Amino acid sequence: MWYDGSREADAKAGCKGCPARGNCLALALETDEPWGLWGGYTETERRRIAAGRTPRACRSCGFDCVPDQPHHARCDRCTTSPDGRDINDDRDAIARMAGDGLTDRQIGERLNWSVGKVKTCRERHNIPSAWTNGGGRNRPDSEVKPCGTYAAYRRHKRRNEPVDEACRVAHNNRSADMRQAREDATTGASQ
């Protein structure tokens, strides 16, 4: 079973409690073994270990693995969908669709993903959104309020950007207007 790819899960389960696991992996790395599962790792995972990547537990199946990217947390087997499609293909599709101007919601509908999953994938792989506000309200750049408005002040605060003087004045004016409206409402109610 250590050389049969279809029984990889069984082989990894057999390696999990083996006392010779560390020596087995060391031998495979030392001899650059090209076949089979050694020390609980596939040949691809052993190459990644030799390149300096750190083994981790797969978030999906729980077996030790060495993901293809440092920030991933799934083994190669679990990054393949049940229909045989590689999840990385979806990442490329997301980049393409975002480049075409689709929102996270539209991308999610096409890939049958949630909006949050699309956003997380975009952020993890540094795929820019087609919308400057992340697609939250589906406004293209032409509809984003310019500086000097309360909406621009809120946008600066939401993005942790420095607030310019025109936006600060707009915020202060709105606050004063709201205070005045509350005072007018309370004096009108008491009469």
Report on this structure.
It is built from 8 helices and 2 strands; from the N terminus they run H-H-H-E-E-H-H-H-H-H. Helix 5 crosses helix 6 and helix 7 (150-158) packs across helix 8 (165-190). The model is unreliable at 133-139 (pLDDT under 50). The chain is mostly helical.
Give the helix/strand layout.
Layout: H1 8-16, H2 21-31, H3 43-50, E1 56-57, E2 64-65, H4 87-99, H5 104-111, H6 115-124, H7 150-158, H8 165-190
Antiparallel strand pairs: 1-2
Helix pairs in contact: 5-6, 7-8
Helix content: 40-55%
* Tally of DSSP helical segments: 8
Name the shape in a single word: elongated
SSE pattern: HHHEEHHHHH
What is the rounded distance between the termini?
87 Å
Low-confidence stretches: 133-139
How much is the average pLDDT?
Answer: 80
Major pleated sheet:
2 strands, antiparallel
* Class by alpha and beta content: mainly alpha
Q: What is the number of E strands?
A: 2
Beta-strand level of the residues, as a percent range?
under 5%
Descriptors for this entry?
single chain; 49% helix; 191 residues; two-stranded antiparallel ribbon; mainly alpha
Structure summary:
Helix content is 49%, strand content 2%.
